[in-house]
Amino acid sequence: MDGSRRWTAPIVGALAVLCATGTAVAASGSSNSSYAMPGERTAPSGSRVQVAARILGMHNAERNRLSLEPLKWNVHLEREAEQWARVLSEKGVLQHADRSTRNGTGENLWMGTAGNWPIETMVGMFLDEKKHYRHDSFPNISRTGSWSDVGHYTQIVWRDTKEVGCAVVTARGNDVLVCRYWPAGNVWGRKAY
User: Fold this and answer.
1) Which of 101, 102, 105, 114 lies closest to 177 in space, CA to CA?
2) In this protein, which residues make up the domain named SCP (predicted)?
3) Nearest Cα residue to 83 out of 119, 40, 117, 132
4) pLDDT tens digit string along 72-126?
5) 3-class secondary structure for the chain?
6) CB count, 10 Å around CB of 151?
7) For FRET with 130, which of 96, 120, 137, 143 sits at 20 to 30 Å CA-CA?
8) Nearest to residue 20, comparing CAs of 191, 193, 189, 178?
């Protein structure tokens, strides 16, 4: 890898974090298929099940710290997240799926240079936003004045969220992580927990 890629990887990862708001409805779909396309991988450093367990463990460790009910893994949300991650990785950009496409679920996104980021770092960047979190009603939830600086974190710890499904896809030199949450967090006028 040349020096410019090493330099840009941390910047791309740090800047490539977005979050969403919205109301929620249950997601649907089947989890019987394999998600890998030729030239893509769906799980960094381990099987899909191992990666899911690590992601869920990180989410629930923070929820446990706050005495919140643990999230359950939803394979239907995982499949929808995987489909959207494939689209984003092929485009090489991050953008949230529109509400109708994601069935009103919450969504956290992350992108970085392929192969440079363990899943713990990807999810860890969402969790690291807690340093800016202010316990108030949405959107007044950030010490920086911008709710988007903590929106990933608040989606993870949103009291009413019960299920999560995430997927990582690699294509065109990018790793893309998409997490879908049901019911969605970051609801106007409510506190995260």
Assistant:
1) 114
2) 50-189
3) 40
4) 999 999 999 999 999 999 898 899 999 888 888 999 999 999 999 999 999 999 9
5) CCHHHHHHHHHHHHHCCEECCCCCCCCCCCCCCCCCCCCCCCCCCCCHHHHHHHHHHHHHHHHHHCCCCCCEECHHHHHHHHHHHHHHHHHCCCCCCCCCCCCCCEEEEEEEECCCCCHHHHHHHHHHHHHHECCCECCCCECCCCHHHCHHHHHHHCCCCCEEEEEEEEECCEEEEEEEEECCCCCCCCECC
6) 25
7) 96
8) 178
Measured CA to CA, the distance from residue 182 to residue 27 in angstroms comes to 8
Structure tokens at 192: 């995260």
Q: How far is CA 184 from CA 19, 152, 175, 177, in A?
A: 11, 11, 24, 17
As to burial, measured by CB atoms within 10 angstroms (0-12 exposed, 13-18 middle, 19+ buried), residue 142 is buried
Listed in sequence order, the residues at least 6 apart from 132 whose beta carbon sits closer than 8 Å to its beta carbon are 142, 143, 144, 149, 150
Q: What is the distance between the alpha carbons of residues 43 and 181, in angstroms, rounded to a whole number?
A: 19
Tell me if 81 sits within 8 A of 8, measured CB to CB. Answer: no
pTM for the whole structure: 0.78
